[in-house]
């Protein structure tokens, strides 16, 4: 099985589920790794089994020569594909910029070229003493982002 054949098989298997592939890889040592997620909600164990069994079935008897790992991308995995950005609009994220600075905020928009990050800042009142909360939106080009992950509060 080639990388292209594996990608086609995975795509054909997950499309009816309303899912997308985050990572599909085939190493020289016959290790197959597939990370998949749903466009809405979270992928289930039954769906992961379906993907794994489709790969095993396509490999036939040769499946014994492969190590197959199918899972979700994980809570703290950086975004890799467009579908992850679209799925997580409205959720809190941590953006690590190319220069190493981290910014937290709500992923307000994604257009394929960049993101809009929305966060609340404390700013001085226009009149009088004290501070007020103000919502600030920042446009960040994808080229300036080293990684972006979900920000979980425990």
Question: Could you characterize what this model shows?
Answer:
The structure is a single chain. The chain has about 150 residues and is of the alpha+beta class. The protein folds into two domains: about 70 residues, GMP Synthetase, Chain A, domain 3; about 70 residues, SH3 type barrels. About 20% of the residues lie in helices and about 40% in strands. It is built from three helices and eight strands; from the N terminus they run αββαβαβββββ. The strands form two sheets. A five-stranded antiparallel sheet has the order 7-6-5-4-8, with no helix packed on it. A three-stranded mixed sheet has the order 1-2-3, covered by helices on one side. The longest helix has 15 residues. It is elongated and about 75 Å long.
Structural Rg: 20 Å
Shape: elongated
* Helix/strand/pairing category: alpha+beta
* Intertermini distance: 42 Å
Number of domains: 2
Q: Ranges with pLDDT <50 over ≥5 residues? A: none
**Order of helix and strand elements from N to C terminus:** HEEHEHEEEEE
Helix content: 10-25%
Annotated CATH topology of the largest domain: GMP Synthetase, Chain A, domain 3
CATH architecture descriptor of the largest domain: 2-Layer Sandwich
Helix segment count?
Answer: 3
Name the beta content range: 35-45%
Question: How many E-type strands?
Answer: 8
